[in-house]
Amino acid sequence: MIFRQLFDPETCTYTYLLADTKTGDAVLIDPVAEQVERDLRLLEELNLNLVYCLDTHVHADHVTGAGMLREKTGCRTAVNATAGVACADQGVVHGDRIHFGDQRIEVRETPGHTAGCLTFIVRDGDRILAFTGDALFIRGCGRTDFQQGDSHALYQSVHTQIFSLPDEAIIYPGHDYKGHHFTTVAEEKAHNPRLKTTISEDQFVSIMANLNLGQPKKLHLAVPANLGCGLTSEGEQNQERDIPEVSPIEASDLSVWRVIDVREPHEWVGELGCIDIAERIPQASVASAATHWDRTDPLLLVCRSGRRSRNVAATLIDMGFSNVSNLTGGMIAWNATHANPE
Predict the structure, then answer these.
(1) What's the rounded Cα separation, in Å, for the pair 54 and 133?
(2) 172 neighbors 129 (Cβ within 8 angstroms)
(3) Where in the chain is the domain with CATH 3.40.250.10?
(4) Rounded to two decimals, what is the model's pTM?
(5) Which of 42, 65, 88, 208 has the fewest CB atoms in 10 Å of its CB?
């Protein structure tokens, strides 16, 4: 198997190129938008055919290059099916296998840093390679204080899905900030200051609760862009498309629409609540569900602020739906308009 570890110095992100030596079929794990030309050049030099771009999670510190690479190579993109990335070609879940040539990647769900984190396991002869994204770093781990992070979940993910691998398994993380390239399961069990086997779950939760980290610099850019496969230009185009907007005032009588709330399940019970009559279908599942709908139904798409729902509206229009509208400002504007006075 051909293997390359690539590095983006601005975000300290590792991208991994894997390829089957027999067929030339290749996979990129966690590509970075600013490094797309580098990756394309390497694929051409090695005479490889990119068949998949995989993201370990919806990144908050950089924009994925998956969408751009799909446009340029025709590869498929894949991310956790629960991550809310409607534009991904394939939503994967725990236990799935991704094939490239005679090689395969095992998908393990390792939530905690985000609710949708994945670890990819590859067996190359006698070697076991684990691409852990931000679930496990070299002597560290990803933070758990945003994007539905959960310290309890991360502790369990690492111990049950990564530390359950043989001690000699090689761990390739999503980032490194101290000049390291890889580690092993045995090393992290013995030396990881947050997750070594002598640290209890309660101790780990306490460690994570007291990190007091600032927000990633690209958080507000990266997360929305990555929910759109990294195609920020596509998102801007959707803003310019002729997608009807309905204000919360105009939507006072909801009986004329089939209301679809495309947020994630935790958001429906969160502080913004949910419109009572709304059908609750996460963004990543709408396209599949819509294959069974009447394409003349009047649809009103809803999300938190109106961005995700607008992107989903564009997808439905591309599928042939003729009467699709977006709720301007999403649930934030809805609540501001319709909240009961105290």
Answers:
(1) 11
(2) yes
(3) 242-338
(4) 0.71
(5) 42
